Amino acid sequence: MAAIDEPSAGLAAFLHREVFADASSVRILELSRPTGGASWETFFVDLEIEAAGSTSKRRVAVRRAPASGPMEPYEVAKDVAIFRALAKSDCPVPPLLAWTEDPEIFKRPFSVTGFVGGESPDITKVERWPLWREQRETLGFEIIDTLAALHRFHWQGSGVEAVLGPRGNAAERVAAVVDRYLRPLLEEAVAAEIGLPLLCDMGAWLKANAPDVSEDDLVIVHGDYRFGNLLWQGTRISAVVDWERAMLGPRMQDLGFLCMPLSRRKDPSLMAKALRFDALCQRYESASGRPVDVLQVQYFAVLWQFLECVNASRALVQSPPAVVTTGAIVQPNLVARQTLPLMEAVDAGRCIL
Questions:
Q1: pTM for the structure as a whole
Q2: Which region among 10-19, 143-152, 167-176, 315-324 has the lowest average model confidence (pLDDT)?
Q3: Would you say residue 120 lies in a domain?
Q4: Are residues 49 and 196 part of one domain?
Q5: Residue 96 vs residues 74, 267, 303: alpha-carbon distances, Å
Q6: Are 49 and 128 spatial neighbours (Cβ–Cβ below 8 Å)?
Q7: Are residues 10 and 41 in the same domain?
């Protein structure tokens, strides 16, 4: 993490006005960015606050929309609604302090939360994390317990409905997600004269095989629930961050993310890079009081493979042609090798996890 040069006078004035209104002055001492993350821009802001004749220091976190990217549109109101809704839940999130959509203050819309301490090991290096080596299963149980707490949250009337997509049952929401991700990629691919038959076929399969789950039985799905988006204090999760892919969906949807092949290439037997599948199922059923539907887990593993491939392909299509040619050949082939057996297992009604 290093200090960076960013225009900060407007941000200091905003924090003074919206967060520390009782202070006589608020000064930014340092603005830094943690490593990692590929979408929203996160800043740690160290402040000096003068109030009631004394001076104190405070750190806050600012999360700013990027200028562009494959997850557009980037809506700060989504984080705001989720943080407000989950503030009193058993799923820990950073405390929301302020937010704005005014691009004149800090270049683009952003939210401000209190700083939450904790380790956040990079997803590609978690196997080197000493705590993972010593207490991998304990960490895995905490991951599942926190996910079950999220799924227990009663979202109806909490305000998240307005930012988590149009109303509908699971099948309708899956269709909307597939179209939202795939349509812009197809438009860009046509312009670049690139064919994407695998992704078109996967999208059609996902729509045809979506589970029959009513809207009343949907839960808040994080959408990117993994090491790297979890802050740890010892073996406890202190905060769940990066909610940009959150949506409403069946309980098995996040479990499918934890179990998708792309997330466990180093050791295919470890779901969430932490637990064997049987242990994951037993812990989730114990923590949530709900059974695990293995076929649904496999179905949603396919969905997440599809979405990850669409995002990667959009980045490639937006790159120079030489990069597109190389990446577009390798990435779909990898996804196909990993995903087609899952699709066949769902069609046949058998478990291969």
A1: 0.91
A2: 315-324
A3: no
A4: no
A5: 18, 37, 31
A6: no
A7: yes
Q: Is 119 among the domain residues?
A: no
Name the DSSP class of 268.
T
Token digits of residue 203: 């999208």
Nearest to 292 by CA among 352, 257, 252, 254: 252
**DSSP codes, 72-133:** -S--HHHHHHHHHHHTTSSS--PPEEEEE--HHHHSS-EEEEE----B---TTTGGG-HHHH
Query: Starting from the edge strand earliest in sequence, which strands make up the sheet with 96-100, in order?
Result: 2-3, 25-33, 41-51, 54-64, 110-114, 96-100
Whether residue 159 is found in the same domain as residue 99: no
Q: What's the pLDDT tens digit per position in 57-108?
A: 999 999 999 887 666 677 899 999 999 999 989 999 999 999 999 999 999 9
| One domain for residues 131 and 180 | yes
Q: What is the pLDDT of residues 218-232, one digit of tens each?
A: 999 999 999 999 999
Residue 112, both tokens? 């401000």
pLDDT band at 335 (very low <50, low <70, confident <90, very high): confident
Question: For residue 317, what pLDDT is reported?
Answer: 72
Q: Are residues 163 and 297 in the same domain?
A: yes
* 57 lies in the same domain as 198: no
For residue 296, give its domain range: 126-348
Does 136 lie in the same domain as 86?
no
H/E stretch holding 337 reads helix 321-348
Look up residue 263 and give its two tokens.
């997330």
Q: Is the dihedral of CA 69, 185, 336, 298 positive or negative?
A: positive
Q: Are residues 147 and 269 in the same domain?
A: yes
The answer to whether the CB of 189 falls within 8 A of the CB of 195 is yes
Number of domains in the chain: 2
Calpha distance 41→91 (Å, rounded): 23
The pair of structure tokens assigned to 197 is 């038959």
